[in-house]
Design brief:
364 residues, 27% strand, binds flavin-adenine dinucleotide, six-stranded mixed sheet, 9 helices, elongated, single chain, alpha+beta
Length: 364
């Protein structure tokens, strides 16, 4: 099939590479002039174990399978990663009960190696930590997400696929059994494809509304939840990812590490109604308070506003967390079209697994 993938984020690239490996003729259309310029370069770069999500949900299935696939991919494709492990910490009895329920949830999801440890055992691993207990997840880690995207792009090209940059998709319609796609940008024009994947991240809903015949009622509402990060201006004190218990809309302000061992904190959850990428320095107050619950030694003045990312959510404040949405023909009635909505965390971890199911759906 001639396949068009819209969006060169980590998910679109993984889908394009999988389709090309299966022998399809693949083009990726990307509105900007590079890969990973959307959500994919504004995240924590964490390879999630797959603990939090309801068993049987797409997020549980794709994060656990995707995590295993991603470690394998990184090993075979020379992409930097560090399976450094993660501690989800409890600082009081209420949090300990939450951590215990996360252990049960993670085991139900088939996450390997989870272990509940006491405060002293946690401090033996991370001396600066203050907690009464913690869930240790040895399978969690971090990845060089840009290196990963470059490797996906390289393999796509090795299989004959290519990316058209500065090529926004403007309109899509179905005629004579093919998808007619109208592109903008310097090389504006129209090309026909057998199959289309809408993997446009924050632009997925807007694009779905420009697909002729796509039922309007089947386009879910896009809800934006910004996640702000603060860098730590000092020598890193943790070697593992440290997470508090989750909060409404996110996993809590946690310690993330990059491949160079630098430490930063975030993301928080800021519900917004339009895209904006500035980090308000005043949010630091809440960061200091939250971080000091598990790291008392956080020095004053050590948090520096860093970057932020926006989660393309399908659920709002106070609502149960929505799942990923993979809308194929049974969902909208249109052949060889898959639209992806709500691919927030753990989308990076899940990317290779999502790609398998999306290409399966195109081939069905
Ligand atoms: C704050 C934050 C922290 C996160 N942390 C993690 C984490 O630690 N681990 C994890 O697994 N996941 C994490 N995630 C989730 C992960 O980053 C995303 O799920 C993933 O990056 C989504 O990739 P994507 O390809 O769907 O979207 P994007 O990367 O946004 O790619 C979509 C692309 O489509 C392009 N586009 C849009 N409209 C059009 C159009 N009409 N025509 C052509 N191109 C178009 C855009 O320019 C963009 O490049 C986090 C997300 C956020 C926001």
């Amino acid at each position: 099939m001639q396949v068009l993938v819209v969006g060169a984020g980590v998910v679109g690239l993984a889908i394009a590479r999988t389709a090309a490996l299966r022998g399809h003729d693949v083009i990726v259309a990307e509105a900007t002039d590079g890969v990973g310029n959307g959500i994919s370069s504004r995240n924590s770069e964490v390879i999630h174990g797959g603990i939090y999500y309801p068993t049987g949900s797409l997020r549980a299935r794709h994060s656990t399978r995707g995590r295993r696939m991603l470690y394998e991919f990184c090993t075979t494709h020379n992409v930097g990663y560090n399976k450094c492990g993660k501690l989800i910490v409890a600082t009081d009895n209420a949090e300990l009960a939450k951590v215990e329920s996360l252990l049960a949830q993670g085991r139900k999801n088939g996450v390997e190696g989870l272990e509940l440890i006491g405060g002293n055992a946690a401090r033996a691993l991370e001396a600066e930590l203050s907690c009464i207990g913690a869930l240790l997840s040895p399978e969690s880690g971090i990845v060089d997400s840009h290196g990963y995207m470059l490797a996906l792009w390289g393999e796509l090209e090795d299989c004959g696929g290519r990316i058209a940059f500065a090529t926004p998709v403007q309109r899509i319609s179905f005629a004579a059994q093919r998808w007619q796609v109208q592109f903008g940008g310097p090389d504006a024009g129209s090309i026909a494809f057998d199959a289309v994947v809408n993997s446009a991240g924050l632009g997925a809903q807007a694009l779905a509304r420009r697909i002729d015949g796509y039922p309007a009622a089947k386009v879910p509402r896009l809800i934006l939840a910004k996640g702000n990060y603060f860098a730590f201006a000092g020598t890193p004190v943790f070697a593992r990812l440290i997470y508090p218990t989750p909060v409404d809309g996110g996993l809590g302000v946690h310690v993330t590490l990059d491949m160079a061992g630098r430490m930063r904190f975030g993301p928080d959850v800021e519900w917004i109604d339009h895209e904006s990428y500035t980090v308000d320095p005043r949010r630091a107050d809440a960061f200091y308070a939250r971080i000091r619950s598990y790291w008392r030694g956080l020095p004053d003045g050590s948090l520096v506003p860093d970057y932020c990312g926006i989660r393309p959510k399908l659920s709002g404040p106070g609502q149960p967390q929505a799942d990923f949405m993979i809308a194929a023909e049974p969902a909208h009635g249109l052949p060889r079209l898959v639209c992806l909505f709500g691919i927030e965390s753990p989308g990076l971890t899940s990317s290779l697994s999502l790609a398998e199911d999306v290409v399966d759906a195109l081939e069905a």
